[in-house]
Amino acid sequence: MKKNSLTLTDAFAMIAFVMVCVSLLLPSIARHRTAARATQCADNLKQIALGLHNYHSAYGQLPQGLGGTDGNDETACNKGRLGPMVALLPFINQQELWEKIFNPFVGSTSNKSFPRMGPAPWYDPQDYTPWSNAPSLLTCPEIGGNARQEELAKDPMVVTTLEMPITTDAQESIKNGMMSNYVACNGDGTQLQDQRSDPSNAIDTQRLRLSRRGAFSGNMKLGFRDFLDGLSYTILYSEAITEGSKNYSLSRIAKNVTGLSQNPSLCLAATEGKHADWWDIRRGSRWCDGTLAITGFQTVLPPNSPSCLSEVGTDDPIASASSLHAGGVHVLFGDGRVAFVTNEVDCGASSSPGVGMGKGYASPGSKSPYGLWGALGTRAAKEVIRPEEPSIQTVASNSRDNTQGADRADSFSSWTDNTGKIRLTAKFNRLIDQTTVELEDTTGVLHRVPLNTLSNKDILRAVNLSFE
Fold first, then answer.
1. Reported pTM
2. Strands 158-159 and 446-450
3. For the chain, how big is the Rg over CA atoms in Å?
4. Three-class SS of residue 105?
5. Beta strand spans in 311-382 (E)
């Protein structure tokens, strides 16, 4: 009988076959991971939408773009610069963090007593620690965790608690804990869009109201009744690349661009080459800060354009939406729908001035000079928008009700411990020996947590998911 033996030719053939299979499989895996991160990003925006609608139901208005307490001492007040996300905390499952901010707080390093609503957003986050505890919901998995996921894919970090791990570099940990990848839409205005209005000055208030046409505009109080264009055609939130992502060049902000508000396209030229004049603060670097240049954007320059300040400073910015999702950005509409807007969306004439009062600006009440993109940013400019516009692609969600986290093994959702104090945004991986649940957070860290330390609801959820 002839013996079966593996010849050298057969071995090379098998190796070649395996290499072909791997070469075909790896791109597919990469595409699936990219799609999963994009879906989770859309789900994060839907969670923000749910919070905004619940806030509006409670108070009859949206959180202000800028709000808080006033005064001269930045440790005794927050200078009226808190952003919408601070007010939204109780409505996005962040009650514990909200209570720390809402109540008096003793500094961690100075033992200084801080008043309700905290110090200025730029105050030392090592001392006033709520500023370094951005909700995990505000991190896009594509942006915030992309480089980290590549590192962890080789050697994943494993922890045994729901709490996020503390890195060996405390400063880097604090910096990461301050960031937000989601930014509020301030409309299509370009004239002093981040200058706080004086309620006692009727002319000043009128000037700012006429040029501020977005969902979030300074310290103006706006409700859904003000969205005359319809919630379905008005953007509330989008994305911004922050420092710490794999490619964070778009997190930089150029400054001292003269004439910016009357010609936003100057921002494009100001950021080219190696000699741009960069501001020392980056996009999304303080989640609690309502400053437009940091946590807002305008529908003026196309998605994934640079951001700039004029010679006036932070009162006069042009801030752009940006992301690491190929070809565009996710946007959240007022009705809770999330769509992907491509970089090729019609943006009109970027060299034109925005709507404003005074010489050189478009007349108040005019349609947006920035095409479809500008029209999507306005709440009451009466532009006509085609529902089938090809540059706007509705994004499917993992969530069963399109607003809340789904009970699916491949979905990120909130997990809570049995005290109700510790929450983690993560997806279910597996149940180990019926006693330990393995969860993967948005940065790729594996949390192997004793099942009996979870809330009763999450224990049941983990067991159910283990059978899927």
1. 0.76
2. parallel
3. 24
4. strand
5. 313-318, 328-333, 338-342
Mean pLDDT of the chain: 84
What distance in Å separates the CA atoms of residue 66 and residue 45, rounded to the nearest whole number? 20
- 161, 112 Cβ separation under 8 angstroms: no
Could you tell me which of 193, 220, 227, 216 has the C-alpha nearest to residue 205? Answer: 220
β strands within 257-325, DSSP E:
296-297, 307-310, 313-318
Measured distance CA(101)–CA(82) in Å, rounded: 11
Please write the tens of the pLDDT for every residue from 155-187: 567 888 888 765 444 455 556 688 999 999 999
Q: Hey, what are 95's tokens?
A: 């009650």
Q: By the 8 A CB rule, do 306 and 271 touch? A: yes
The 3-class SS string of 399-426 reads CCCCCCCCCCCCCCEEEEECCCCCEEEE
Please state the φ and ψ torsions of residue 22, each to the nearest 5 degrees: -65, -45
Instruction: Compute the distance between CA of residue 364 and CA of residue 355 in angstroms, rounded to an integer.
Output: 6
Q: pLDDT tens, 112-164? A: 999 999 999 999 999 999 999 999 889 888 764 444 444 444 456 788 888 87
